[in-house]
Structures are given as structure tokens and as C-alpha cells.
């Protein structure tokens, strides 16, 4: 079955471009479009898409609030949200991730990256490109913990190996890359990631990465 995609952007020309790219793929189907967050909510309820390609800055309701309502406790369907941001990295992207987005992508990303990102998110994974993540978190370093604040108590529920895994997730590494880094199997890494998400009450790897930075476990620019 094709992955059902809803396009949400206030620029019709961009929506047309995205539609042309996605409809060239046999496993992707654009089921609708919306020009703002309110329209997006209506379309999600009516069309039940698998993935919502969501712009941030839009009239009436922005992408952050729309994401919150689409992925929140009262959500009407299984839709995942993939946020689109400008080359400069929009200041609201972190808020969108907190609101429940499964990842973010630059608007000028190559067509193959857009297609792959939609497939990844539809499969239930998080789209966490290391280069974009690093630039985003470096940009907001001033808003993140300085290192002088005590780390949250929830971190103490993690084992030493789970903390290592969380740090590598925050760097944007895949399960395979983490397995190679720690000299363990990919299955073991998946188990550790699952434990981290459960213990910290997080939904996916994107929220885990944001948590790692906000808690002070990882510092922007650190290796």
C-alpha cells in the first residue's frame, strides 16, 4: 500500500513542487493539500494520511500548534508529522519537535532526501539528520543548560550503557552506527533505545535528542 501524504504549506507553488516529486514515486500518494494549520487539521480528520509534510510559518494556525493537535493525546489518526524548515533553521523547529513532530527537513533538500525522509517517518522512525541537528542545537545553545544546573532525576534511572546510547542518539547516529561505536549488535542497541524512551517517557529518537541537550547531558558542539 502506498504511503498517504498530506502537504501543508501556505505557498501553492511549493506544494505543487512537492506533489510532482512525491507522485513520481510508486509507494507515495499525495492525498490532499492545506494552506494553513486549521485546514491541515480538517484534512487529517477527513483523509487519514500516514505522513503530514508540515510547514512552520503559516496564517491562522502555525505548524507548531497544528503538529501538537495532530500528534497529541486527542489525535484522530496515526499521522506522523515531518516538519519543513528554511535553510536558516526556523526558530520554531525545536517547539515543533517538542509538540510531537517526528523529524525535520530543509525546504531546499534534494528530492531523494525528501522521499526518503517520508518513508523513514512513515515506518515509525525519527528523521534526525546529524548535520541539521547539530546546526539547529548550536544555534540555540544560549537557550540550553549551561552545565551548572543539576541534571534531572530521570537521568539517574538510566544505566551507564543507556546513557552512552542516549548521547549517541543525540549526535544523530543510527542504530547501526551506534552498534559499531559500542561494539554491540544492532538488536542490542534497539533494546537500549527502547529502554531509554520508556524510562524517560519519550515518544521517539527526536524527543530523546532534544531531551539530551535540554537536560545538559550533551552540549552543543561537543563530540
UniProtKB/TrEMBL annotation:
The keyword Acetylation does not apply. GO terms for biological process: phosphorelay signal transduction system; regulation of DNA-templated transcription. The modification 4-aspartylphosphate is found at residue 55. GO terms for molecular function: DNA binding. Residues 151-216 form the HTH luxR-type domain. CDD domains: LuxR_C_like, REC_NarL-like. It comes from the Bacteria. Residues 4-122 form the Response regulatory domain. Keywords: DNA-binding, Phosphoprotein, Transcription, Transcription regulation. The keyword Lipid metabolism does not apply. This is Response regulator transcription factor. It comes from Streptomyces kasugaensis. The lineage of its organism: Bacteria, Bacillati, Actinomycetota, Actinomycetes, Kitasatosporales.
Amino acid at each position: 500500500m502506498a504511503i498517504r501524504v498530506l502537504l501543508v504549506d501556505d505557498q501553492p507553488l511549493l506544494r505543487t513542487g512537492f506533489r510532482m516529486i512525491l507522485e513520481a514515486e510508486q509507494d507515495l500518494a499525495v492525498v490532499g493539500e492545506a494552506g494553513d494549520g486549521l485546514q491541515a487539521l480538517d484534512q487529517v480528520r477527513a483523509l487519514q494520511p500516514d505522513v503530514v509534510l508540515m510547514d512552520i510559518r503559516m496564517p491562522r494556525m502555525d505548524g507548531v500548534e497544528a503538529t501538537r493537535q495532530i500528534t497529541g493525546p486527542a489525535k484522530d489518526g496515526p499521522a506522523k508529522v515531518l516538519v519543513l524548515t528554511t535553510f536558516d533553521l526556523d526558530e520554531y523547529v525545536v517547539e515543533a519537535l517538542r509538540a510531537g513532530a517526528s523529524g525535520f527537513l530543509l525546504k531546499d533538500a534534494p528530492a531523494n532526501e525528501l522521499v526518503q525522509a517520508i518513508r523513514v517517518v512513515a515506518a515509525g522512525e525519527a528523521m534526525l539528520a546529524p548535520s541539521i541537528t547539530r546546526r539547529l542545537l548550536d544555534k540555540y545553545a544560549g537557550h540550553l543548560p549551561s552545565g551548572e544546573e543539576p541534571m534531572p532525576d530521570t537521568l539517574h534511572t538510566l544505566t551507564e550503557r543507556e546513557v552512552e546510547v542516549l548521547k549517541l542518539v543525540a549526535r544523530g547516529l543510527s542504530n547501526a552506527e551506534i552498534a559499531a561505536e559500542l561494539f554491540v549488535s544492532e538488536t542490542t542497541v534497539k533494546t537500549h533505545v527502547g529502554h531509554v524512551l520508556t524510562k524517560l517517557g519519550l515518544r521517539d529518537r527526536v524527543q530523546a535528542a532534544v531531551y539530551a541537550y535540554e537536560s545538559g547531558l550533551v552540549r552543543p558542539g561537543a563530540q
